[in-house]
Design goal:
Its EC number is 3.2.1.-. InterPro entries: Beta_cellobiohydrolase, Beta_cellobiohydrolase_sf, Glyco_hydro_6_CS. The protein is of the alpha/beta class. It has one domain (2-300): Alpha-Beta Barrel (TIM Barrel), CATH 3.20.20. The protein is 39% helix and 10% strand. The chain is built from nine helices and seven strands. The longest helix is centred in the middle third of the chain and has 21 residues, at 140-160.
């Protein structure tokens, strides 16, 4: 309860200088439907909260797209939150399947992404699910290539975007054991990143995620001699998880994006209302598409 009270107090503060995206799916929908009674609620509870902009194969010239977004945030004296999501064999052929064709194309893409950030301050989440899904690759060479691409991404941000805080994705609290995840993160270049991110697009509570992060850090310290800060996606974890991952009913938005401490950052990485795929309580809404019905369910916890 003390932890929850701490988060409540943190929410009362300003949003720690993070950028509110006026072109997020919830914001665009609300402006396009001013007479819909849901619009005001979605604006107040979701669209006005700092959250991530995701970049992938839909983004066109990624350097231009990232530079435009980061530049607007910089002009507003705010820190943007960005997600790089275009690695080859993205989501292992699941609901968010896609990504660039091969490793060479990814190196070009992530280099362009990092140059788009440039010298601006930013928070960047690198490739959700990419380390946890290593098991979908059948050969050691395929797994090594995935880790090499993640190391390359970290190195490009360090070179081209030195003011960016880069977080490697680390799955969620009940996916991969902490010791295995620590090994994977280290192999993916974590030592040169700001930290690791948990619970992206999932529903586990912040307390569960913190416990897992502490175990990962213990394993990092034991195996490699260092620990790292971590970010937790709180966009939909207000009611915790019921074990389902794809648009489950009864979930709720969680603690707003805020710089709670030097070691733990609650941040809205998934955009509340964006579908996980054509499944669950949104059987006809494709992955990444905004649904006002999903958004209101998350506001109400229904």
């Amino acid at each position: 309860m003390a932890v929850l009270a701490f988060y409540g107090a943190a929410q009362a503060r300003a949003d720690a200088g993070f950028y509110v995206d006026p072109e997020s799916g919830p914001a665009l929908w609300a402006r396009a439907h001013p007479d819909d009674p849901r619009a005001a609620r979605i604006t107040e509870s979701i669209a006005n909260v700092p959250m991530a902009r995701w970049f992938g194969n839909w983004s066109g010239d990624v350097r231009t797209a990232v530079s435009r977004f980061a530049g607007k945030a910089n002009a507003a004296h705010r820190k943007p939150i960005l997600v790089a999501y275009n690695i080859p064999n993205r989501d292992c052929g699941g609901a968010s399947a896609g990504g660039v064709a091969d490793a060479s194309a990814y190196r070009v893409w992530i280099d362009s992404f990092s140059r788009g950030v440039g010298n601006r301050r930013a928070l960047v989440i690198v490739e959700p699910d990419s380390t946890a899904q290593l098991d979908c690759f059948k050969t050691a060479d395929e797994r090594d290539e995935r880790l090499d691409l993640l190391r390359y991404a970290v190195s490009r941000f360090r070179l081209n975007a030195p003011a960016a805080d880069v977080y490697l994705d680390a799955g969620n609290a009940y996916w991969i054991s902490a010791a295995v995840m620590a090994t994977r993160l280290n192999a993916a270049g974590l030592s040169d990143a700001k930290g690791f991110a948990l619970n992206v697009s999932n529903f586990y509570t912040t307390e569960e995620s913190m416990a897992y992060a502490n175990s990962v850090n213990a394993a990092l310290a034991q195996q490699f001699g260092y620990t790292k800060p971590f970010a937790v996606d709180t966009s939909r974890n207000g009611n915790g998880s019921d074990g389902q991952w794809c648009n489950p009913p009864g979930r709720k938005i969680g603690a707003r994006t805020d710089a709670v401490s030097d070691t733990m950052l609650p941040v809205w990485i998934k955009v509340p209302g964006d579908s996980d795929g054509a499944c669950g309580s949104a059987p006809t809404t494709p992955a990444g598409a905004f649904s006002p019905e999903l958004a209101v369910r998350l506001i109400d916890g229904d």
